[in-house]
Design a protein that fits this description.
Two copies of one chain form a homodimer. With 152 residues, chain A is α+β, with helices and mostly antiparallel strands. Chain A has helices spanning 26-36, 40-43, 45-49, 60-74, and strands at 16-23, 86-92, 101-112, 120-130, 135-141, 144-146. Helix content of chain A is 23%, strand content 32%.
Chain lengths: 152, 152
């Protein structure tokens, strides 16, 4: 494993990163919705106008997936990452529309180096997903990273 | 809005539903991963063998998206649904492999009819996603449904 990759020790509590930009197209909103979330407000302009979204918007799961893509490109594929086990408290705050350009800002909240797993550590992070003007979604995840030095 | 659709009043605390089956293919795991989670353990058999997944497995976000598809087909598109605002405590417990057949079991945990929103109510649900033999993922969500009778 290359030393140039980010390891558990390289993350600092309070550290912030910004990833993106990710341009959201109508075609991609439709494509994801047809496959995974075929509700009218993600697939039909007129139905969407009369929905809680007040216009066509991406599936919330699609928003999380786009954020993931930004972090894989910008962080995880440059890290000695070891996977993730879940996500807490995902909030879909505002609709994500065709033409929006997203970015994801991440802050390191906590680090845990368990005694039972001396090769890895957990890095708890808050993900805030913005469009041009507003926070549109957020969640917390705790991915695993390999340690440079084996813990005791 | 047709009365045949499920409304807020039709859900009972403790009620259980089962949705699926959903056949997971290698091609679909690759397709989702190329678009949204291009980490080696979702895209490369050899890299996956040496990862925490010990073999090729679907992105956790893909697992959530497949569960969503099962619920849209089986529940939300048969309901007077009004959207959702997030997801709590998603856990990716076991790898989802090519050839797995998934189902999603849902239990109604709580119902909330807010005074401030007399047309809708919140139905908190736990989603448990199983393969042939094991629980592979779970999360909690609180979708909105329209009320048959306007609350006071």
């Amino acid at each position: 494993m290359s030393d140039e990759l980010l390891h558990f020790e390289d993350f600092k509590i309070g550290q912030k990163f910004s990833f993106g930009r990710y341009e959201v197209t109508r075609e991609e909103i439709f494509e994801f919705a047809r496959e995974y979330d075929p509700q009218p407000h993600h697939l039909d302009e007129d139905a969407a106008k009369n929905s809680i979204m007040k216009g066509l918007g991406a599936s919330g799961w699609h928003v999380c997936a786009m954020a993931m893509r930004m972090l894989v490109d910008g962080l995880f594929n440059k890290s000695a990452g070891a996977g993730g086990a879940g996500c807490e408290d995902a909030r879909w705050l505002k609709p994500v529309r065709p033409g929006d350009v997203l970015r994801t800002e991440v802050e390191v909240l906590e680090k845990t180096a368990p005694r039972s797993k001396p090769d890895i550590g957990f890095v708890k992070m808050r993900w805030d997903i913005f469009n041009q003007t507003d926070l549109v979604a957020s969640f917390i995840s705790t991915p695993l990273f390999k340690r440079r030095k084996r813990g005791t």
